[in-house]
Automatic annotation (TrEMBL):
GO molecular function: methyltransferase activity
Protein's name according to its UniProt entry: Class I SAM-dependent methyltransferase
Keywords: Methyltransferase, Transferase
Pfam families: Methyltransf_13 (PF08421), Methyltransf_14 (PF08484), Methyltransf_23 (PF13489)
GO terms of biological process kind: methylation
UniProt keyword annotation of Ubl conjugation present: no
SUPFAM superfamilies found in the cross-reference section: S-adenosyl-L-methionine-dependent methyltransferases (SSF53335)
Gene3D superfamilies tied to this protein: 6.10.250.3100, Methyltransferase, zinc-binding domain, NAD(P)-binding Rossmann-like Domain, Vaccinia Virus protein VP39
Domain Methyltransferase putative zinc binding: 4-59
Length: 398
């Protein structure tokens, strides 16, 4: 048991991945003896139903300058963020002299789009960088007060793939209390618990993802901190996410979409023990099936290469015990990952050009959330007789 970071209730574990490395800590092949590991296990709060890790990884890992993830490395994601920015410009940011703050703005697609529309904007991140205006800090009551003093209240505070990473989430709400305009909103998008459980997307569970949100847990959390969940939107990206809109209490009427999703979650009995037990069983079935397949292919002399050195793949390779003996290398378009080896599992990362040189018999698609985009880009692999191996929602070959 551990203590819930939202409500101080008891968190009951439902899956233990054992010791895991930090998912973005790609290592120089010479430095593999010096890696940091932490206990990765996930549980559900018996009081507020928030699903969360039992032990947070050290804070700030995802914020250092060398952080190797760039959201616009995917064409689909680039477009996704541009569309969101345009939508905000037409709605929340359409009043006089609007102001948007983005927490953890990554490579700044949203902020650059609003900047180009002449809208006041600010990125908040401990190691602020890039072509947008930034405030270098964690988002909390202190930094929110500084921003309020210099810029005035925010109409929108936005965050993608960030809020779920902040274990001390009360700090976010304390900052919102200070900075948000009376009718301002927090808009954030993160992986959806419902889809993680339904599709056995167990590899969304790694050091950087602390919370696994459902609409009901987010609604309860918002109320606890003096806010309300007023809108939800399903997003098809990253294997299924929800975009939540939070307003100050009693300022906005929640949409029908909120009522519908809350009702569906009740119907699905999302965090009931049987559901969580079924998830645990399904993860171990995927492990057995994938190891059986990879071992058989190796025995048959087939070449298997990994595709996408994702943060998610740290859980897959380390929990399953997949190393370079089964997957000799993984190709990835991120230059800062190339030449290094994957955290814990030590699979060399190589540029995508190596994928075709020559094509392997099978490609294990770690970046399954970008399947459509990657398979379209790598059509020639299929044409040459290559096959994709996927493991979500179960092991299958395409
Ligand atoms: O939440 C998070 C998500 C949004 O991004 C972070 N905590 C960390 C990161 O997680 P991830 O590494 O699992 O994200 P992706 O988007 O699944 O990573 C895709 C990887 O695949 C990247 O390293 C880039 C690579 N890639 C590629 O080699 N060719 C991606 C595409 C689209 C490609 O065509
Ligand atoms: Zn709780």
């Amino acid at each position: 048991m551990s203590i819930c970071r939202v409500c101080s209730g008891a968190v009951r574990e439902f899956f233990d991945f054992g010791l895991q490395p930090l998912s973005s800590a790609f290592v120089d092949p010479a430095g593999v003896d010096d890696e940091y590991f932490f206990p990765l296990s996930i549980g559900v709060c018996q009081s507020c139903t928030m699903v969360q890790l039992l032990t947070p990884a050290p804070r700030g890992q995802a914020s250092h300058e060398g952080y190797p993830y760039h959201s616009s490395g995917s064409r689909v994601m680039h477009k996704h963020f541009q569309q969101l920015a345009h939508r905000l410009l037409e709605t929340e940011l359409s009043g006089p002299d609007p102001f948007i703050v983005e927490i953890g703005y990554n490579d700044g697609v949203v902020l650059k789009t609003v900047r180009d529309a002449g809208v006041r904007h600010l990125g908040v991140e401990p190691t602020g960088r890039g072509a947008v205006r930034v405030h270098s800090a964690f988002f909390n009551a202190g930094s929110a007060a500084e921003i309020l003093a210099s810029e005035g209240p925010a109409d929108v505070v936005y965050a993608a793939n960030t809020i779920c990473e902040v274990a001390e989430i009360a700090e976010i709400f304390e900052g919102l209390k200070v900075l948000l305009a009376p009718d301002g909103v927090l808009v954030f998008e993160d992986p959806y618990l419902g889809e993680i459980l339904e599709r056995t997307a167990f590899d969304q569970i790694y050091d950087e993802h602390f919370y696994f949100f459902s609409a009901s847990a987010v609604s309860g959390m918002a109320e606890r901190f003096g806010f309300a969940l007023v809108d939800v939107e399903h997003l098809p990206v990253h294997g299924g996410q929800i975009r939540y809109t939070i307003a100050r209490r009693d300022r906005r009427r929640p949409t029908q979409a909120v009522a519908d999703l809350l009702a569906r979650e009740r119907e699905q009995r999302l965090v009931e023990p049987e559901k969580l037990q079924a998830f645990a069983t399904a993860v171990d079935r995927i492990r057995d099936d994938l190891l059986e397949l990879l071992t058989r292919l190796r025995a048959e002399g087939k070449r298997v290469v990994g595709y996408g050195a994702t943060a998610k793949s740290a859980t897959v390779t380390n929990y399953f015990g997949i190393g370079p003996d089964l997957v000799p290398f993984v190709c990835d378009s991120t230059p800062s990952k190339q030449g290094l080896v994957t955290p814990g599992s030590h699979i060399p990362v190589r540029p995508p050009a190596d994928f075709a040189d020559p094509y392997p018999d099978y490609a294990l698609l770690f970046a399954w959330n970008h399947a459509e985009e990657i398979m379209a880009k790598e059509r020639a692999f299929r044409d040459a007789g290559g096959q994709w191996i996927l493991y979500v929602p179960e092991v299958h070959v395409l």
